[in-house]
Amino acid sequence: MPTTQQTRRAPAAPLESKQTPSPAEQGEAITRKTSEPYTGDLSIFENVEREKNLQIYRVMDILGIKEGASVADIGAGSGWFTVRAAQRVGTAGTVYAVEINSDFVKHIEERAAKEKFINIRAMLGKEDDPVLPAQSVDAVLILKTYHEIAQPIRVLTKLKQAMRPGARLGIIDRNGAGDDHGLNRETVVKEAALAGFSLLEEHDFVKPDGMDYFLVFRAK
Questions:
Q1: 65 φ, ψ (degrees, to nearest 5)
Q2: Strand order in 70-74's β-sheet?
Q3: How far apart are CA 35 and CA 44, in angstroms?
Q4: What is the pLDDT of residues 92-130, one digit of tens each?
């Protein structure tokens, strides 16, 4: 069973008072260890237990994803979250499924057609740019792929430009060293602050073993 939710409101002052990052700080964030982007069998993302373990509908509630919303799924993989978000936002909403792997983009396009989703936009992004239109999304989720992003501050800065006023950015990942398919939460918070985000809240209900974290940010 999932662990009892522990929610901690983050003090905004330390992040808000952060000065313009120095070149050294930016370099640290950009050159830290990262994991190689996954290129294997997409069926691993379709585990029947995943929906229950991640409590993905609760995640969407926290991010304010509702009917008519515009959502970005960054590192969309098989489209596992994409289709669930598409169901939630309905035909009045849009889900941008962003991938840097062209084969995955094609897979999502085919899946959307097969499952008759007309509100999914599969997009081929770049390593440093999700190529989203300016002020186009109400919520962003980076689900278990942040540790693969080699240019995190550049990507987060582009995401900030794509987010509408009041939009939320959610990052779910596993504690780790960066090159082991995980990244410690402190590094994520620091990089988000350097890109102009404030930590709004965090949760630990997204994995029964408590190793995964769910961070929620908003633009400063």
A1: -80, 115
A2: 8-9, 197-203, 212-219, 163-174, 137-143, 70-74, 94-99, 120-124
A3: 17
A4: 999 999 999 999 999 999 999 999 999 999 999 999 999
Q: Are strands 163-174 and 212-219 parallel, antiparallel or unpaired?
A: antiparallel
Q: What is the mean pLDDT of residues 46-56?
A: 79
Q: 56-219 belongs to which homologous superfamily?
A: Vaccinia Virus protein VP39 (3.40.50.150)
* Nearby residues of 121 by Cβ (< 8 Å), 6 or more positions away: 94, 95, 96, 97
The domain limits of the chain are 56-219
Question: Which residues sit opposite 172 in a β-bridge?
Answer: 143, 214
What's the predicted TM-score (pTM) here?
Answer: 0.82
Q: What is the SS3 assignment for 183?
A: strand
What span, in angstroms and rounded, lies between the C-alpha atoms of 33 and 218?
25
**Cα–Cα dist 142/105, whole Å:** 16
pLDDT tens across 151-206, in order? Answer: 999 999 999 999 999 999 999 999 876 565 679 999 999 999 999 999 999 998 87
| Structure-block tokens of residue 122 | 């599969």
